[in-house]
Amino acid sequence: MIDATHDPARMSWVASANGHAEFPIQNLPLGIFSPAGGGPRGGIAIGDSILDIGAALDAGLFAGAARDAAELAAGRTLNAFMEAGPAARQALRRAVSDLLAAGGAGEAQAARILHDASACTLHLPNRVGNFTDFFAGIHHVITAGQMTRPDNPVLPNYRYVPVAYHSRASSVRVSGEPLRRPNGQRKRPDEAAPEFGPCRNLDYEIELGVWVGPGNAVGEPIPIGQAAHHIAGFCLLNDWSARDIQSWESQPLGPFLGKSFSTFVSPWIVTVEAMAPFRGPQPPRPAGDPAPLPHLLDAGDQAGGGLDIDFEVWIHTAKMRAEGTAPHRLSAVNAAILYWTVAQMVAHHTSNGCNLMPGDLFGTGTLSGPDVRTEGCLLEMSRGGSRAIDLGNGEVRRYLEDGDDIIFRAHCQRPGQVSIGFGECRGRIGAALAL
Ligand code: MN
């Protein structure tokens, strides 16, 4: 639903928000931050600043449903706010948009309610009870599948089942935290026996993160027609992957230690409401593909469940930093490549009666296109390490090296709308623990 909060003519008294590439007044993503010298609390990104929701409450700037919603969003995590659902999010969004709009009541309290974002620390926005990683980027499935099954890269279930696995919630962390190269068992095909040692094939996966809003009771599936109401918002997600550990351990069960050492998310939750101008039809399936089964098919979801988000992956190596050169863009891809909508993921996930909880996290699966430099991980770009990727400065990569920074960004842009961004999801590879 597009309303006054999306109006391209709406400007903010927070000067840095006007024309801001990530956080104009039309975005208003939520997160948890600590100002210098203060503890974690709920906030909303606006330009180069963060609105302190609790401080705005204390200043008496919210009333009615917006006040109730702000109370849920002002604490140390946003789980209670996630649970409150679309009406609470919309009430808070309308009130904050009015507060921050040119001439809005917040300006007189600016010193009390705004913090300079560069002086704040950002935290994980929710206590993550569960993290499920899907596999909905079909070109990732094709390219990765071709390495082991050249004649049959996509297994027959794929076009019926939104394939996923339960990943690890405890090691989900926020952008910018330290990351240590994992140790583990790995064995190349030409080696007789495995060794325990530092991962040799460390990779990233760029994914869209999905934050679950209201949950469901165990035994009570969420119908596809209601699934959208259970999604609160989106973020960037880096599903760090130790390819050598993963390939050795996943015979025959799924990903375990090759994935569970860490997953990074961007700190800001870009709400479903902020994404309203950037939705559209789910792209049609290729000719010959089966229609989704009825419990995964909804006319409204097919008409408006597609997301128009442009993603980019950048690398900034230690050498680039030392020489003062800019990061190198590895790839760019649009979310239109997703084979399944996020509502289909919710409906499938709960179709057996499994319960989702507020603040649960999904990854969509690696976002890859069919073309060169649209691949969302190095496994694909290097074809399993067999091709060197030229970084344009004399360096090449097959997999990540210690000191590499991997930076994800995403933006939404459409004619007649103000563009919004997701902020960054960033991580630097640290050396493995010495054995
Ligand atoms: Mn993944």
Write up what this structure looks like.
The chain is of the alpha+beta class and 435 residues long. It folds into two domains: 120 residues, SH3 type barrels, CATH 2.30.30; 300 residues, Fumarylacetoacetase-like, C-terminal domain (Fumarylacetoacetate hydrolase, domain 2, Alpha-Beta Complex). Helices cover 20% and strands 25% of the residues. The chain has twelve helices and 26 strands. Strand 23 and strand 24 form a beta hairpin. Helix 2 packs across helix 4. The longest helix is centred in the N-terminal third of the chain and has 15 residues. The protein starts with 29 loop residues before the first strand and ends in a 5-residue tail after the last strand.
Tally of DSSP β-strands = 26
Task: Please state roughly what percent of the residues sit in beta strands, choosing from under 5%, 5-15%, 15-25%, 25-35%, 35-45% or over 45%.
Answer: 25-35%
Point out poorly predicted stretches: none
The rough form would be described as globular
Structural class estimated from helices and strands: alpha+beta
Count of DSSP H/I helices: 12
Q: Count up the domains.
A: 2
Quick structural overview:
Helix content is 20%, strand content 25%.
Outline the fold blueprint:
Layout: E1 30-34, E2 41-46, E3 49-52, H1 53-58, H2 64-73, H3 79-84, H4 86-100, H5 110-113, E4 114-116, E5 121-123, E6 131-134, H6 138-148, E7 164-167, E8 172-174, E9 179-180, E10 183-186, E11 195-198, E12 202-203, E13 206-212, E14 231-238, E15 241-242, H7 243-249, H8 257-260, E16 263-265, E17 270-271, E18 279-280, H9 299-304, E19 306-307, E20 310-316, H10 318-323, E21 328-334, H11 342-350, E22 361-363, H12 378-381, E23 389-390, E24 396-397, E25 405-412, E26 420-430
Parallel strand pairs: 6-22, 8-16, 9-26
Antiparallel strand pairs: 1-2, 1-5, 2-3, 3-4, 6-7, 10-11, 12-15, 13-14, 13-22, 14-16, 14-17, 18-19, 20-21, 20-25, 23-24, 25-26
Helix pairs in contact: 2-4
The structure holds manganese (II) ion (MN).
